Amino acid sequence: MRRTIRSSGAIKDIFAVSLGGFLVDYDTTVRLESYWRFAPKHRLDFGSLRLRRSHSRIIDRQIGWGDLVFPVNAQVDSEFGSDLVKLGHRYSFVRNEHVEAGLSFGFSTFLMSGQISGQVVSGMTTVFDSKQEDVVAPIPVVGLHGEFRLVRTLYARAGVEYFQVSVSDKEGSLTDVRASLD
To answer: Long-range contacts for 161-166 (Cβ within 8 Å, ≥24 apart)?
Structure first.
């Protein structure tokens, strides 16, 4: 849903909400975005992204996870989940009836969890065990965006945002690159 008011000069976006999905190497991906333009060259963006994946296999080497040791030929099941909630500010250096381009910055919160389970070595025996690690990390985000009017009602939009987090011995980063024709 996008509300656009046309007048002389720049495109007058006031409020927009979009919901979509895309294909990646994960099992489930959902994205929700919306924004509010509070001044001609400024807008606030809100976004949410959920990624989930799981895998099961018989391992061909010993794996350690914390205090768990999974022996060779053990069936190991793993799950990973990541939720991202983002609030950002966009400033457009250029904004006219044909082009809008600028920088974005804001803060996000990553909620990550990982779990591994399977047969582990405990003393002289092998037993089934499981271990889960969770991390909640507020992180900054920076990016670039651009929108180009190709013809009267066709727009090319592109953007890139970069997130990086380091908490204790856990590190992660995400580069969000988007392009669309609307």
So the answer is: 161/88, 161/104, 163/84, 163/108, 163/110, 163/139, 164/139, 165/110, 165/137, 165/139
